[in-house]
Amino acid sequence: NAGVTQTPKFRVLKTGQSMTLLCAQDMNHEYMYWYRQDPGMGLRLIHYSVGEGTTAKGEVPDGYNVSRLKKQNFLLGLESAAPSQTSVYFCATGQGRETQYFGPGTRLLVL
Amino acid sequence: QQQVKQSPQSLIVQKGGISIINCAYENTAFDYFPWYQQFPGKGPALLIAIRPDVSEKKEGRFTISFNKSAKQFSLHIMDSQPGDSATYFCAATQSYNTDKLIFGTGTRLQVFP
Asked: Which one of B94, B100, B102, B108 would you mutate to disrupt binding with A, by most A Cβ within 10 Å of its Cβ?
């Protein structure tokens, strides 16, 4: 029972490159979230999903896209990375709207 | 109205002391207030949570105090230990009307022996 896993753990990109972050969960949770964490800014919600096949925008969605084709996976895409997207990205899941279970994070550096 | 303001940004406490972190909110429709604890290199994890029908909730050395009229809530860590050194986030939500948690900006707590 791995809980919430994130792939990759660390990545370096050049400006303009694209990449996909994968979040996988084995808890059968309906809700999945992508956050970014920056110093002094707390956790800011990028996109989220309330079930397979659904996605919705969060607080800071620009420059990111998401997909939830399978209930257990939530993908976060960066089509053209920018230095402002250097951050630590966390995926979280939840059975309801309240308690969220976070993954270990992906550290992304955009040069 | 959706913001949750958290203070202080950082806190240094001696072992055995009391750590106090404060949060304030504007949206009176919020009805669930959790605190998350994050150790370096890890994701946040739920620590303790409270609903506005009670003024205090205690779990071990951790206590949430809630003041509905002032729209404030705080986390108290009694007998603080070096192992409590982490970043703490308060959060709030309307549990029946939204799918999202609104997080505070975090407090980095350091407990020295």
From this structure: B100
